[in-house]
Inverse folding.
């Protein structure tokens, strides 16, 4: 069972602060994910300069629309940074229109990177709220067929929906996503932008979200799957220390 923590690299100082918190307070974390957000100064693959790779598995996010498959820029980055893992996602449209993007599909990029780097671990994402379960199931299958090793989900907020996906995704090849939503404003954002349907008992507070995280971790422990934490603008101690106190591997 692996447990990943997403570090958003807003600044070098903030990146170090998050990593120090993980090192000092969260001994159950063994993997660090770094997203690639164009509005931030640190690209995901540069996270390798901050993460202790002797202690943590490092997974930078790669936006497929930033790369032309006819070129080898991504391959050069993988070699220069000595990456042994990558998460390939489509990527959101850039905030700056001068940023060039390409029509590179995730599945095509997975296939190309698998061909060029046979031993690299390739991760892809899926979103349980993006479309119907059948459509998402087929897309996950296409990614596995192209050479993806592991699937990381966008956050779940309902164990019943997680159980539905558990029926057809191999337990040892999935990371179930968890992200605390602790304000009404944040809840509205997830509903309107990410199409999330929250369960009837949901509450945007630390208590509900902490208990849900523990439920997901217990599910992972029982089924030998993995967990992926995405803590977005929260009090890390207030959220994670109760989880630490109540959960043991």
């Amino acid at each position: 069972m692996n447990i990943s923590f997403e570090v958003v690299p807003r600044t070098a100082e903030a990146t170090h602060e998050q990593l120090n918190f993980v090192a000092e307070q969260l001994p159950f974390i063994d993997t660090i994910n770094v997203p690639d957000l164009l509005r931030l100064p640190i690209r995901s693959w540069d996270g390798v300069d901050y993460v202790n790779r002797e202690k943590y598995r490092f997974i930078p996010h790669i936006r497929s629309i930033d790369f032309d498959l006819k070129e080898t820029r991504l391959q050069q980055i993988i070699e220069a940074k000595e990456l042994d893992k990558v998460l390939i996602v489509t990527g959101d449209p850039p905030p700056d229109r001068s940023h060039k993007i390409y029509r590179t599909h995730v599945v095509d990029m997975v296939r190309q990177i698998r061909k060029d780097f046979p031993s690299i671990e390739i991760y892809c994402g899926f979103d349980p709220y993006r479309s119907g379960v059948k459509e998402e199931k087929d897309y996950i299958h296409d990614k596995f067929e192209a050479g993806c090793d592991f699937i990381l989900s966008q956050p779940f907020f309902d164990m019943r929906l997680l159980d539905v996906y558990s029926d057809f995704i191999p337990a040892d090849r999935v990371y179930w996503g968890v992200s605390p939503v602790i304000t009404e404003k944040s809840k509205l954002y997830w509903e309107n932008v990410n199409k999330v349907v929250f369960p009837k008992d949901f509450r945007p507070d630390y208590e509900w979200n902490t208990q849900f995280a523990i439920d997901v971790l217990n599910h992972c422990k029982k089924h030998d799957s993995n967990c992926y934490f995405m803590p977005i603008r929260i009090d890390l101690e207030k959220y994670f220390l109760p989880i630490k106190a109540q959960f043991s591997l």
The CA atoms of residues 188 and 196 lie 9 Å apart.
